[in-house]
Write a structure and sequence with these properties.
- With 392 residues, this protein is α+β, with helices and mostly antiparallel strands.
- It has three domains: 238 residues, 3-Layer(bba) Sandwich (FAD/NAD(P)-binding domain), CATH 3.50.50; 61 residues, Elongation Factor Tu (Ef-tu), domain 3; 62 residues, Helicase, Ruva Protein, domain 3.
- It has 14 helices and 21 strands.
- The strands form five sheets. Strands 1, 2, 7, 8, 9, 10 and 20 form a seven-stranded mixed β-sheet that branches. A seven-stranded antiparallel β-sheet has the order 17-16-13-14-15-12-18.
- Helix 1 runs parallel beside helix 14.
- The longest helix is centred in the last third of the chain and has 14 residues.
- It is elongated, with a radius of gyration of 25 Å.
- The two termini are 20 Å apart.
């Protein structure tokens, strides 16, 4: 049996951050992962540029059954901490909209930064290692793998969620949590496109490629960003954000003209340009193909003067309160994150150690904390990994 102080399962963003911090404390740290190479999700994130954090991180940017759980970690490891690490490695970056920070060059620079920090901290990585069995024993844990049997005093699970299975995502972390008696909140796909119902597909699929600025809402939650029409359904930043909150069977409400009071505009133009066709006016604000899919052709062909008050109200309602009932989402295949996971009630918000199982930690996406689109999930990985690394 090979002895280690700390074993971390998952060569992920949170796993490597935890390993680095634990290694800095003089611990003998081994990271195990079943993949061939580490940091798979980092390499494909942000279109290959890695949106590694956001300048405006707060608990309001996260979903969890316990919305207060993430506050401690976020206050102790801030965006400025990861920025300092990135700058120390000479990685150039830039800010995009809404405080999102991306690498100027490849996401590989973030992976290389983590691997360099691991090497400096004496952390050892072992890939292509399948976990066959884990059990708690006196003074730690016994881990059976296809590469041998290990013993450690501290065991951190950074195995991620179910999103992007082509990168090797599995339910390992959830099964392990349940093995040790921890509750797991249902895992569902988050930050994921919606798909059309059959009844809508014929009419709306031809709109593929259209993107418009809009406010989208489900329940009491709303966001404003671009909506992107695809052959299969709706995507774009605002839809991905909303998907993490959406429940099957819920209607999605979309304001396609968030900066225009269409009822007032129609009333004014009926006086000023009464012979102008409705389609000519609306084409100044929305693509013609989109208008034709939502408003009847006969109505679009009418002059403004010929529109009745009722018609004006119906047109305004159609564009300000367009309703779509998605069939479903694209699922974990296209999801960027997993909503749900190991119940935070079982964990310390300070150390990420299980309350009832000394030495067992859960960090990153496997935990029931899910960030918005825009670097928040990577920041959760850094923060939770860093905090756990102070105690493993």
């Amino acid at each position: 049996m090979i002895e280690q102080d700390v074993i971390i399962i998952g060569a992920s963003a949170s796993g490597l951050m935890c390993a680095i911090e634990s290694g800095k404390r003089g611990r003998h740290v081994l990271v195990l992962d079943h993949a061939r190479k580490p940091c798979g999700k980092i390499l494909i994130s942000g279109g290959g540029r890695c949106n590694f954090t956001n300048l405006d991180v707060s608990a309001e940017n996260y979903l969890s059954h316990n919305p207060h759980f993430c506050k401690s970690a976020l206050s102790r490891y801030t965006p400025w901490d990861i920025i300092a690490l990135v700058e120390a490695h000479g990685i150039s970056y830039h800010e995009r909209s809404h405080g999102q920070l991306f690498c100027d060059d490849s996401a590989r620079s973030i992976r290389d930064m983590l691997l360099a920090e691991c090497q400096q901290a004496g952390v050892r990585l072992q890939m292509t290692t399948n976990i066959e069995h884990i059990e708690a024993i006196a003074h730690g844990f016994r881990i059976e793998t296809n590469q041998g049997v290990y013993h450690c005093r501290s065991l951190a699970i950074a195995s991620g969620g179910l999103s992007i299975p082509k990168l090797g995502a599995t339910d390992f972390g959830y099964r392990l949590a349940q093995q040790f008696g921890l509750s797991v909140r249902p895992a569902v796909a988050g930050l994921v496109p919606f798909t059309w119902r059959h009844a809508d597909k014929t009419r709306l699929a031809p709109l593929a490629g259209i993107a418009v600025d809009a406010v989208a809402r489900t329940g009491q939650t709303s966001f404003r960003e671009n909506v992107l029409f695809t052959h299969r359904g709706l995507s774009g930043p605002v839809i991905l954000q909303l998907s993490s909150y959406w429940q099957p069977g819920e209607m999605v409400h979309i304001d396609l003209l968030p900066d225009v009071n269409l009822a007032m505009l129609l009333a004014e133009r009926r006086q000023q340009a009464s012979q102008q066709q409705l389609k000519t006016l609306l084409a100044q604000y929305l693509p013609k193909r989109l208008l034709a899919a939502i408003i009847a052709k006969a109505c679009l062909e009418q002059t403004l003067a010929s529109l009745s008050l009722k018609q004006c109200q119906e047109i305004s309602e159609a564009l300000h309160h367009w309703q779509v009932l998605p069939k479903s989402t694209e699922g974990f295949r296209k999801a960027e994150v997993t909503v749900g996971g190991v119940d935070t009630d079982a964990l310390s918000s300070k150390t990420f150690e299980c309350h009832d199982i000394k030495g067992l930690y859960f960090i990153g996406e496997v935990v029931d904390v899910t960030g918005w689109l825009g670097g928040y999930n990577f920041h959760w990985a850094w923060a939770s990994g860093w905090c756990a690394g102070q105690y493993t």
